[in-house]
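Researcher: Next entry in the queue.
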Amino acid sequence: MEYQHLIALVTFAFVSTVTPGPNNIMLMTSGANVGFLRTIPHMMGIIFGFSFMVILVGIGLVGVFQSYPILHQILQVVSVMYLLYLAFKIAKSKPAFSNTTQYQPMTFFSAAGFQWVNPKGWTMAITTVSVYNTTSDWRGIALISLVFAVVNIPSVSIWTFAGRQLQSLIQHPTKMKYFNIAMAALLVVSLSQAL
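Model: Structure for this entry, 195 residues:
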């Protein structure tokens, strides 16, 4: 891959991973509710889960959707339903410092699996493989996957850290409740990327 092409890929990867979307909204929510350290498995699940998704999309999953468009429509419906479920869970969750049910951050495997129903993730993976896989072979796909893994580290860290910084401002259970409701609403708004 040429140097200029690589710079364009890194720029696209950073912009697409650092901008608001379901992953980042949930990371900020988790950072605010349970802090940075307890959110690390969630962060790592996004990093590895999305990179793995890029590999599978690159080696032929796009072709399956082109051959069977109904599968893509089914995936969209499942994605919307799952995001609505997550938004409901976030809106109803209690913060970790509450005496009632604690907020549960996503596990590594939950976050990795979430990439498969994340509308923004699908858009990013398909666009990246279509535009930046100039060699049309496994090396190009591996490079794209590696770039996203590396670029996702600061992206997920920024959102989790921002949530952690908010923690001191929303220590009161009522403020945390409204914060979680606002984050759930933003998660629902992010569905516009899928529709």
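Model: The longest helix spans residues 138-167.
Researcher: Noted, moving on.
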